[in-house]
Amino acid sequence: MPNNAPALPTPILITGAGGFVGRNLVATLHAMGCRDLLLFEKDDTPETLADFCRRAAFVVHLAGINRPTDPRDFYSGNAGLTDTMLADLEAAGNACPVLVTSSVQAALDNDYGKSKHMAEDAIFAHGQRTGAPVYVFRMEGVFGKWCRPNYNSVVATFCHNIARGLPIQVRDPGYELPLVYIDDVVACLLDALQTGRAERDAEGFCRIHPVHRVTLGALAETLQNFAKARGGDAAKALGTDGLPTLAVPALADGSLEKKLYSTYLSYLPEDGFAYDLNMHCDARGSFTEFLRTPERGQVSVNISRPGIVKGNHWHHTKNEKFLVVKGEGVIRFRRIDSTQIIEYRVSGDKLQVVDIPCGYTHNIENVGDGDMVTVMWANEAFDPEHPDTFALPV
């Protein structure tokens, strides 16, 4: 933990530690250096739970049932386990804080919702009886890495299936989903653990923030575009030619699209982390686009053979950055209304970015003995309908 971070109350009892939220919370606590954890799972004994409840300085109750074969299991797995845990705490005289994750479905009249509501009521009653601080988090649909697909998360199911070229079902494209991201969930839980702070609504329920809202149709389209960007069989299954579009989405800090992109990549099959690029090769070398973004331009990799000159053109608005990472070269400029030629020596031995300004015709020559590799960034992705590229020797 950072030196200025509030100390964590330990040991921390975490029920359902092997579940989606539990795995992410435990991984974060471990990364913070916290190892004093009492991890309770469904196969552990009642005696283990009682011992953990006696020793705990803080309880994070994540265990629950989502999709049992018998609806009665909702009540034993949600309300019943909660009652047992609270009874163990009270029997031990342990009035430590108790945090429980519930669901917005607790307000609905179905078996899952009713069992969650019963667990919530039990936690609040425990706090009133014992004076223990209690935190009941009513959460929207949680998404992120390690969530089980084809279970109870549409995001996980869509990510898993789309990444593998499998079909998805979008029954109502206009249906709006409220979603919270796993990293935001963990951050809110940690805030309660470390400081006792939590954002509460008028009914006293703790809420995860921020909440993102997206229609089912927009969610599917966004994730499908991620697949198209990488190309391959997953893209072909969506009706494309399988060539990657190379599109990286807008990744504004905290945006839903950024969080969905990180989530999608975590569901790639283990033999599908890599994807091929379309190399444009000739006797001079090759030119390969690496990625495209909607508002941050395009990155490409240029390989030139010894003695080769590339470029000899200029742009009105497009500007570029050249970075030679291997070999030796000379970049030459001439303003189109001038005869003066400007030269920059570049080398992979001393990384230096050279800006290519508008209105200057320019070229790059490989003056070394081997291939020269240049990373090139342009402020806009190439559009063959509006190339903004005009041939003119330097």
UniProtKB/TrEMBL annotation:
It comes from Candidatus Gemmiger excrementipullorum. This is NAD-dependent epimerase/dehydratase family protein. Residues 280-390 form the Capsular polysaccharide assembling protein CapF C-terminal domain. Residues 12-199 form the NAD-dependent epimerase/dehydratase domain.
